[in-house]
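Ticket #4471: structure export looks truncated?
Reporter: QA, pipeline team
Priority: medium

Steps to reproduce: submit the single chain below to the structure queue and open the exported record.
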Amino acid sequence: MKLEHPTPIKWKFSQRAEQLQSSVIREILKVTMRPEVISFAGGLPSPDTFPVERMKAAFDKVLSEQGKTALQYGPTDGYAPLREFIAASLSTPDCKISPEQILMVSGSQQGLDLLGKVLVDEGSKILVETPSYLGALQAFSVYQPQFESVDTDEHGLIPASVAAKGEGARLMYALPNFQNPTGRTLSVERRMELVETCARMGIPLIEDNPYGDLCYRGEPLPKMLNMNPDGVIYMGSFSKVLTPGIRLGYVVGPAPLIRKLEQAKQAADLHTAQLTQMVVYEVIKDGFLGEHIPTIRALYSRQCDVMLEAMTTFFPEGVSWTRPEGGMFIWVTLPAHIDSKALLAEAIQQNVAFVPGGPFYANEADKNTLRLSFVTVSPAKINEGIEKLGQLIRKKL
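Actual output as written to the record:
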């Protein structure tokens, strides 16, 4: 029986909830759902790369042969064969990773939240790149840290800035490969210096690597995890190499940290879905990624080249941008007087969308920056959208 005139509840949210904010990107994506909008905004992998038939066959096989196990509760740390596969793929002759060092998570975003939960107290200093991944800033901000922005240049994070600013920091968060949002890649020399600096200062180093396999030229650079497995926390994901819809990632770190993360995960969701873990293992166990990832690289490389050429053709002088060697993003710097947030409002009127750069900064933002993603847009639409954007920028000079 329903009450006829219930008294409305005056909701009292926690201080933590009061300071939560929606993702700027997620809000922009609501606009880009319109089919006429050319969207350079999302960090979404191209659906053309999703191995639908392979996934369907794996679901059928797992449910047919191991259905009762797949549909049951599973262990918090994850499906053992998948963890063994990941451990083997991350191991090198000089650095063996064990399955006990791996925790499966419901997308790497959950890994960021769990790391914030077990490593960060209110007021803790944490080091982030300038700019940095918006999702990480959101995840950590729930725990009310003090963000310290580490200096960067055209080659990415500057390790000397960590030495200058890192005293007392709880963690350093870095994306060394085709960074989101800039597309920059950290050199081997800087990786070694960063690892050495963090180890010397006792700062846990988070190496977030969702894009590392998406290199267009040459071989992937060495992982910082293998340089110091006792001090580096590695984060990987299947979102960019299979499909984001499965929400499957993993955290690799020293056993004491992984056990504490496991306890935090038990309080969050008990375990990541057993079914999806078993399906992913079925898909990748016989070397499928070695065949599949090169097709993703080829597609993204072509579309990146198209966008870079279009920008050279249509963007006016005074605008600069990165030239990524992999990944999904190009970072644009406009003349100092142009506010990219205001530019976005005008661009949407022309049915073009991008992400303003401001939200990617933990502290003082460069408002004349923006992020472009090229992977879900056809070459023809890339040219059309960049031409329109170039015209809008030119009017502001």
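Status: closed, not a bug. The export was complete when the record was re-opened. Leaving a note from the reviewer for reference: The chain has a mean pLDDT of 94.
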